Amino acid sequence: MAVSVVVVLYAGRGRTFGSDELVYATRLSQQSLWHAMFHPPSNSYLIALPMAVYRALYETVGMTSYVPYRLLAMALNLLCAGLFYALARRRIGDLWALAPTTLLLFFGFGSEEILTFQRMPGSIALAAGLGMLLVLSRGTRGADIAAAILLTVSVLSHPLGLAFVAAAAVMMLSRPPAVRWRSCWIVAVPALAFAVWWLFVRADATVPMQSDPGEIASFVRQSWTATVEAVSGVAGVVPDPIYDASLGWIVSALVLALIAVVVARRVRRPTPTFWAAAAALLTLMIMTGITRGTEFLMHGRPADAGRYLYPQAFLLLLVLVELAGVARPPNWVKAATVVVLGLGLIANLDELDQAGRAGRALAPQLRTGYGAIEGGEESVNRDYFPNGYLFPDAGDYFDFSHAFGSFAFSAEKLQSAPIPRRVRADQVLVAGLGIVARRAPAGPAGRCIVLRPPVEATLVVRPGTLFLKGENLRNARLRIGRFNQDPTVPVRVPAAGRSLRLPIPAIDTPLQWRLAVASPSPVSVCGATRPSPVRTRGGS
C-alpha cells in the first residue's frame, strides 16, 4: 500500500479535474443540494451520497488545487484493496492473498478510478459492497445491520450497488430457511430505496436503453474477455480493442472452463461468497450492457473502459479466490498463478504510466481553455465550449468557478506560458467572443493611424469599436490576440467594402489586445480606441 501511494501519485502528477467532476460542479453550483442528489439529468445515475461529498469538498477545499482530490482517490483505492485482502485471506491465507491485492493496488487498466477523483461514486459503491460481503458472512444481528447500512450506501452511491444487491440476495438464500426470511430486510431496504427513486423521483429517460438481447450478450462476452486480459497481463501484448484479440478470447474461455470444471467436480461445495461474487459480476456486466449509452456516447463506451474494468477486476479476482479456497490447488498451481498475476502487474504498471502521460497532456489544455475566457463573463458567449462538448461550456464554467474557485490558468500565467499554449488561449478567446470584421460606413472622423505600404504593423488597441479604411481591404490580412505578443488568430475580412468595423470586447484582465495588420495598399486605423503601434514596417 505504501509503495502504491508513491507510484500512483507520481504517475498521476500534473492532472486536473475531469469531465465528470466538472459536470458535478456545474450541477452543484446551479441547483440545490437536494435537487442535485436526487434529480440527476435524464439518463444519469443515482449518485446521491457522492454528490453530497462533492458539495462538501467543493465548498471547503475549493477547486483551485486538485491535490486533495487525488489524495482522497488514493485513499479509496487503498480501502477497496484492503477490504478485498480481508476477504481473500480468509480463503487462501495471508501470504497468497497478497498477489491479487497487489495487482489491484496498481490496476492501471482502471486508471480513471485510481488516478482521478471523478470515479469516486463507483469507488464508494465498491468499497461499501465489499464491506457488506465481509460483515454479512458473520451472521450476527449487529453484522446484519452493518451489512444493510453498507448496502444502502452502495446503492445510493452508484448503480454498481445493484450488483451487490444481487450478491446480498444470494448470501441470504444460502442461509437456513428459518433465518432466510427473517433477514431478507437486509436486501429489501436498499432495493426499496432504489425502486422509490426509480419510479417516483428520477427524470424521464430520453435516450433509450439497450434492449437487444444479442447486443447485451455480446457486451457481456467482451467484458469478460477484457477483464480476464487486464488481470492476466494478456492486455499488455494484444492490440486495442483488447476484447477482440484471438489470444484474449482463448485465455478468457480457458478461465471460464476452469471455473466450470472446479464447480462441476463438487469435491467441496463452493462458498456462498463465491456465488455472491459471481452473481454480482454477471449482474454488473449485464447492467452495464443495458445502460452504457449516454447523451454524448449514443453507442456506449467500449467494454474495456477503465470505469468498467476496475470493479469487474475486484469481483473476478474474488470469484477466483473463493474457488481456490475450495479447490485447494497444489503449490505449483499457486506459483503459476502468482506468475500470471505478476505479468498482469507489469501490464498494468505500463498502462498506469500511459494513462498518467495522457492526463498530463490534457490538463494544460483544459486549464488554458477555461483560463482564456476568465474575466470575459460579460462578453463571451455562454454556450461556447472552450474545451469541447464533453466538458462544461463557458456559462457553466463561470457558474462553478464563482461558487467554488477556478483551477484554470490565470491571465498572467498564460502570458508567460509557452508559445503554443498562448496561441491556443488566443484562439479560444477569439472564438468565444465571436470577433469578426464587418462592412461599415465610412467610420468616424478624427485621429487615425495611416499605415502605408508595404504595411506590416502590430497595434495595441483598447476595447471599443475599431474602424479600418482603405481602397483594397479585401486583400488585407488581420490577426488578433491578447496573450501572445505576436497576434496569430485570423480575423475574417468581408469580400467587399472600403470600411470595416471591428469590435474589441472588454475583458476584465490587465492584458491588452493586439491587432496585426498586413496589406499591399494603405490602411487607416481609427476610432474611439485610438490605437497605438508597437511595431511597424513601412510608412505610417
Word description of this protein:
The strands form two sheets. The protein has a five-stranded antiparallel β-sheet, with no helix packed on it. The protein has a five-stranded antiparallel β-sheet with strand order 6-5-8-3-10. A hairpin with a 7-residue loop joins strand 5 (477-481) and strand 6. It folds into three domains: 2-338, no CATH class; 365-432, no CATH class; 434-537, Jelly Rolls. It has 20 helices and ten strands. The longest helix has 43 residues, at 331-373. 46% of the residues are buried. By secondary structure, it is α+β, with helices and mostly antiparallel strands. Helix content is 57%, strand content 9%. The radius of gyration is 29 Å and the shape is elongated.
Brief rundown of the structure:
The protein has 540 residues and is an alpha+beta fold. It contains 20 helices and 10 strands.
Write the layout of secondary structure elements.
Layout lengths: L1 H10 L7 H12 L2 H6 L9 H13 L6 H26 L1 H12 L5 H5 L4 H17 L4 H15 L4 H14 L3 H6 L2 H17 L11 H20 L13 H20 L6 H20 L14 H22 L3 H43 L20 H11 L6 H5 L3 H15 L4 E2 L8 E4 L3 E7 L2 E6 L7 E5 L7 E3 L7 E6 L8 E7 L3 E5 L4 E6 L3
- Mean model confidence by pLDDT: 88
| Number of separate structural domains | 3
Q: Fraction of residues in helices?
A: 55-70%
**Main sheet record:** 5 strands, antiparallel
Biggest sheet, spatial arrangement of strands: 1-7-4-9-2
Summarize the helix and strand pattern as letters: HHHHHHHHHHHHHHHHHHHHEEEEEEEEEE
Cα-atom radius of gyration: 29 Å
Kindly report how far apart the N and C termini lie: 69 Å
Low-confidence stretches: 294-298
Number of helices: 20
Structural class: alpha+beta
